[in-house]
């Protein structure tokens, strides 16, 4: 599998790309895409990195797995291709933004507009077999994305990490909390949100407050 990833990440993660587990992972992914329908499209596997350079990263949102339905996943966590109906978690993200910031609910579920402002939309696992949630877990992706989080933690300052739900919260052990900001809450999925663990977290206004406090421009959510 050809590694089409933005130059700043290629340099930052150079050592990771040369490790045996990563080479095995690329072989696995190539075979899966050859034998099965997988998401996102192969050209979008590293879309989160290509849309937001290492230097520009100032907010990190962590997801778990790409959407496994047709035409949904576009390589950015929680994001869907333009014109695709918004999945329930994304609907709740947009509802919280509307409540938090008093803005209109957006038409497009494509979150590349966030990535272009410095939001790394990182899934723990970057690929999935169609209609089989979690099918590419424990193949090496988690080791790679954990290494990404550690790199950001060690080499950058004052990054805002949004950890939504139990799985994402476990990643706090990879982050230097003395240097970075952690915003954690329940997951935006209906199961969590409807039980009161998501709505009202105000993560989007809090992130903008923290950014402006350190002299950065706020994110247009």
From TrEMBL:
Localization in the cell: Cytoplasm
Keyword Ribonucleoprotein found: no
UniProt xrefs under CDD domains: UDG-F1-like (cd10027)
Cellular component terms per the entry's GO annotation: cytoplasm
EC number: 3.2.2.27
Family matches, as HAMAP family: UDG (MF_00148)
Identification of the protein by name: Uracil-DNA glycosylase
Organism listed in the record: Cellulophaga tyrosinoxydans
Gene: ung
């Amino acid at each position: 599998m050809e590694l089409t990833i933005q130059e700043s990440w290629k340099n930052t993660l150079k050592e990771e790309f040369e490790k045996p587990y990563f080479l095995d992972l690329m072989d696995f992914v190539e075979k899966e895409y050859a034998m099965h329908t997988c998401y996102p499209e192969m050209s979008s596997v590293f879309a989160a990195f290509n849309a937001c350079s290492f230097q520009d990263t100032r907010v990190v949102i962590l997801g778990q797995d790409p959407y496994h339905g047709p035409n949904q996943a576009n390589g950015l966590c929680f994001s869907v291709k333009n014109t695709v109906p918004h999945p329930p978690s994304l609907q709740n993200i947009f509802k919280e933004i509307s409540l938090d910031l008093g803005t209109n609910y957006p038409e497009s579920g494509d979150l590349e507009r966030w990535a272009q402002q410095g939001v790394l939309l990182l899934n723990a696992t970057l690929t999935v077999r169609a209609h089989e949630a979690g099918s590419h877990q424990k193949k090496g992706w988690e080791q790679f994305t954990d290494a990404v989080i550690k790199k950001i933690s060690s080499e950058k300052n004052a990054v805002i990490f949004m950890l939504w739900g139990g799985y994402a919260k476990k990643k706090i052990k990879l982050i230097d909390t003395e240097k970075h900001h952690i915003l954690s809450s329940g997951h935006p999925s209906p199961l969590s949100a409807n039980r009161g663990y998501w709505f009202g977290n105000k993560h989007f206004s809090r992130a903008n407050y923290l950014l402006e406090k350190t002299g950065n421009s706020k994110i247009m959510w």
